[in-house]
Amino acid sequence: MPSGLRDNNLKNSRHPSSPHWSLLGCGALGGVFASLLTQSGQPTRVLLSERHRATLHPGIDFTSLEGHTQLLAIERGFIDKPGTIQRLLVMTKAGQVVSALTPLVGKLAAGVPIVLLHNGMGIAEQVVQLFPHNPVIAGVTSHGAMQNGHFVFRHTGKGETWLGPINEAAKAHSALADQLATALGQAGWDEQILTRQWQKLAINCAINPLTALYKLKNGELAGPRFADVLQQICVEVADVMQAEGQPTGSDELLRRVMTVVELTADNYSSMYQDMEQGRETEIEAITGFLLGKAAAHGIAVPVNQGLYQAVKEKR
């Protein structure tokens, strides 16, 4: 953790009424978002699983991009007794979204918006089936985050965040993007969120497996060693995207990938962090999703297939 100013007084932005945001999933990115929402004055409650009940921390230790560290008092609840939820922000790993939400089936009031912010694709459709009477919103974000300990989080990179509707009911909730923007500095609403999801998937297919397998910071992919494989990944992803009705080209995807590599040069990808910590990676929702779509269209994606297998074998 970088040295910085520490405020030893717990900064408390609690509100006497129900929290405006209930956040499910307090990993690296979830912890950073909870901290940023709290700092912006938006009451936020973190919903934890039962296993956290005996390991509570007096506050979230948050280090900003500028290196300033604060202890933030953020209300905590537990998923078995969630209380009143006004809007639900789900920030678990992709593979944990459905299992994390399942205890809320029958408890979450109809009409409460569910915002999904995870890597990969193919999860939102399952959530719509679980909660047919709730607006389901998908999001993509390029913010960087690290978890340095128990409820110790560091914001490592400022990025863009986009939300968009998965079902018809979600279209009435575009104002949620404005509220997130107050905390994040930028957030937008895009009715064509599927296109942004595919673009993010392409970036994740390129950056995450390589950095995890070779134990690299993102910026190390900019060297000539990885030029050919990155190009091949983008060619394969572009082929699948085109078959899925997403017009793009491999050169465009490669430019996007290299832009992210440059902007996040000092960051470690989430898949690298997961693999280093022995946690389940999101390879199924990222490269696994791509492989499934490729198979459906009869498209060969050997480079992505090889990376998928290598990550699976390393776990």
TrEMBL record:
It catalyses: (R)-pantoate + NADP(+) = 2-dehydropantoate + NADPH + H(+). Pfam families: ApbA (PF02558), ApbA_C (PF08546). Keywords: NADP, Oxidoreductase, Pantothenate biosynthesis. InterPro entries: 6-PGluconate_DH-like_C_sf, 6PGD_dom2, ApbA, Ketopantoate_reductase, KPA_reductase, KPR_N, NAD(P)-bd_dom_sf. Residues 23-167 form the Ketopantoate reductase N-terminal domain. Its EC number is 1.1.1.169. This is 2-dehydropantoate 2-reductase. Belongs to the ketopantoate reductase family. Catalyzes the NADPH-dependent reduction of ketopantoate into pantoic acid. It is an enzyme of class 1 (oxidoreductase). It comes from the Bacteria. It comes from Aeromonas rivipollensis. SUPFAM superfamilies: 6-phosphogluconate dehydrogenase C-terminal domain-like (SSF48179), NAD(P)-binding Rossmann-fold domains (SSF51735). Pathway: Cofactor biosynthesis; (R)-pantothenate biosynthesis; (R)-pantoate from 3-methyl-2-oxobutanoate: step 2/2. Signal peptide: none annotated. Residues 193-314 form the Ketopantoate reductase C-terminal domain.
